[in-house]
Amino acid sequence: EQLVATFGINRGGRVTVPINASARGELLQYFLAFADCSAVIVEARLYPRVAELRAQLPQLRHVFVADIASRPEPLPAWSPDVRPLQDLLAPHAGDTPALRTPGYRDLAMLMFTSGTTGPSKAIMFPHAHISYWGLEVAHHHEYTEQDIAYVFMPLFHGNALLGSTMATLAAGSSIALTHRFSVS
């Protein structure tokens, strides 16, 4: 779901902001406010972290919740539009204005650093940089169509999203995604 959402958002001319799933409170507010996010896609289990910040994030108007059906209790009400992620992924005829096809120089992603030397900084990635990163890794690692990348790191991480996923796609290879590393 995250990759489909990321590529769909970028194809629509919008900017993605992958955020560390452990972010909460002031750090999460900082990420969402700094990036001026007007929409967020969040797992149902993490939705309460976003909901508690609603008063501090007036620009956040749309919330799409993944795996909403798996929640035993309903999500708390919120004034912005809170909908299942499936609503965003479903085809909509004519209810969304057409966006300009993004160019290579256009901003595709803001990726926050880990913040080990101070506050996290947002790195600006245009579409060209993301494509080039994948092409270069695929070339230097000599990936082929027969390779399968085992991606177990979270997709908010540069290694997982740019190094592994984009390189695999650039090579025409396959990806095996999982939530965490396992020798089995």
Could you report the average pLDDT, rounded to the nearest whole number? 88
Shape: globular
The gyration radius over C-alpha positions equals 17 Å
H and E order: HHEHEEHEEHEHE
Largest sheet: 3 strands, parallel
Written overview of the protein:
By secondary structure, the protein is α/β, with parallel strands linked by helices. 32% of the residues lie in helices and 18% in strands. It is built from 6 helices and 7 strands. The strands form 3 sheets. The protein has a 3-stranded parallel beta sheet with strand order 1-2-3. A two-stranded antiparallel ribbon has the order 4-5. Helix 5 (127-140) crosses helix 6. The two termini are 24 Å apart. 21% of the residues are buried. The mean pLDDT is 88.
Give the topology, please.
Layout: H1 2-11, H2 25-34, E1 39-43, H3 47-51, E2 62-66, E3 81-84, H4 85-89, E4 107-112, E5 122-126, H5 127-140, E6 148-151, H6 158-171, E7 174-177
Parallel strand pairs: 1-2, 2-3, 6-7
Antiparallel strand pairs: 4-5
Helix pairs in contact: 5-6
